[in-house]
Write a structure and sequence with these properties.
The complex is a heterodimer of chains A (73) and B (182). By secondary structure, chain A is mainly α. Chain A has three helices and no strands. The longest helix of chain A has 24 residues. Chain B folds into two domains: 114 residues, Beta Polymerase, domain 2 (2-Layer Sandwich); 52 residues, no CATH class. Classes of the chains: A mainly alpha (73), B alpha+beta (182). At the A-B interface, helix 1, helix 2 and helix 3 of A face helix 2 and strand 6 of B.
């Protein structure tokens, strides 16, 4: 059972999520693609840092992505 | 990492697809998969660009051959990596659609979306949902849930597609997965 404060926090989070998603949905196709490109780059950088720090290796599909985008163009 | 143009050469990919069509290698085509989800909805992570298409020259063999596409790509100097063709920095996966009535209908009824100065064919929202339902992987169901949450689906159109392609019972069985959050 959630108390009033918890319910209020949840409702606020839902409102924020909805606003954020509406904003993203209303971007132009070019802006969406630009954000995808940015998302891909940031994700790859995160994978690189993880590997450098002794974590799991960069997944094969992301290596392919990197090669396609930056090496074999 | 280098920053490329905002749409990272996507206009050049469209140019290559149009050139393939003009060269008589492919007929109609449309963007599908996660990339189509992005154009209709919001940016999500994906590494590739799925192109659903019809081959211009039908194969005699019962085994589908995409040699015409690979030969063309090779002549243009594009790199290959198994199922992907690297076209101007995008991993493009070509998916021949003529064997599937659902995919065929999806291409025939695709939307046209303007990206900068290019018009590109993109599989419509309701057809995408039906295709993801048919595929039935966790990541497909996530995209269906995302589309349901966006509240932009034409429910009557979706039901029509699901009925035509015998997917209503699967929809009824699986729809709890895509129910709106409480």
């Amino acid at each position: 059972m959630k108390n009033d404060l918890q319910m209020e926090v949840i409702a606020d989070l839902k409102r924020r999520k909805k606003t954020s998603r509406e904003f993203l949905r209303n971007l132009s196709p070019s802006e969406k693609i630009a954000r995808l490109v940015d998302l891909q780059q940031r994700y790859y950088e995160m994978l690189e840092v993880r590997q450098r720090n002794g974590g799991r290796k960069i997944p094969e599909k992301w290596r392919k992505w990197y090669q396609a985008r930056y090496e074999n163009v | 990492m280098n920053n490329q143009s905002s749409t990272a050469n996507l206009d050049k990919v469209v140019g290559v697809l149009e050139a393939m069509r003009n060269a008589g290698i492919i007929e109609k085509y449309a963007i599908g998969g996660a990339f189509a989800a992005i154009l209709h909805n919001e940016p999500i992570s994906t590494i590739d660009l799925d192109i659903f298409f019809f081959l211009a020259e039908k194969n005699e063999s019962p085994i589908l051959s995409l040699n015409a596409i690979y030969d063309y790509a090779k002549n243009q100097g594009f790199f290959f990596d198994h199922e992907f063709v690297n076209i101007h920095g995008w991993l493009v996966q070509f998916v021949e659609a003529s064997h599937s009535p659902l995919w065929t209908e999806a291409i025939e009824n695709a939307d046209s979306i303007s990206i900068d100065d290019s018009e590109i064919s993109v599989i419509g929202k309701e057809h995408l949902v039906a295709m993801w339902l048919l595929a039935g992987r966790a990541k497909d169901y996530q995209k269906i849930a995302m589309f349901r949450e966006a509240e932009f689906l034409d429910e009557a159109k979706l039901v029509g597609i699901l009925e035509r392609h015998d997917l209503m019972s699967k929809w009824s069985r699986e729809k709890w997965r895509f129910a709106d959050e409480e």
